Amino acid sequence: MANFQAAGLSAYIDARLADAHVLVPQLEGPFDFVFSDADKDWYTKYFVAVWPKVSPGGCFTAHNVGMRWDDGIGEFLDHLQTVQDGRTTLDRQSRAGLSITCRTAR
After folding, report:
1. Please, are residues 61 and 100 in contact by the beta-carbon 8 Å criterion?
2. Which residue, of 24, 28, 35, 72, has the greatest Cβ tally within 10 A?
3. Residue 4 near residue 13, CB atoms below 8 Å
4. Cα 33–chain centre separation
5. Domain ranges in the chain?
6. Model confidence over 28-56: pLDDT tens digits?
7. Are 72 and 42 a contacting pair, CB within 8 Å?
8. C-alpha angle with apex 82: 76 to 85, nearest 5 degrees?
């Protein structure tokens, strides 16, 4: 939190320390931006829990999507292809990879 304050961003960022399996489904939203760098086998569950709460134009970003595909990343990337109201961009320029899915409509 000190870094967010030092950067003058604390009013715009909601960072919480908790068990994400419990916390994420309880979050109310709306969200303009979600960054996921948690347990990869839960990426799909996190996405499903928050996507309905992402504002139009908002994005869900996931880190390490270019890594191994046996840890839930393949399932997550397959799920992103089924999202009707969003557009996904994959950045695989780095070894880790990044997916950015932005809501196009409600």
Report:
1. yes
2. 24
3. yes
4. 8
5. 33-57+67-91+100-106
6. 999 999 999 988 999 999 999 999 999 99
7. yes
8. 110
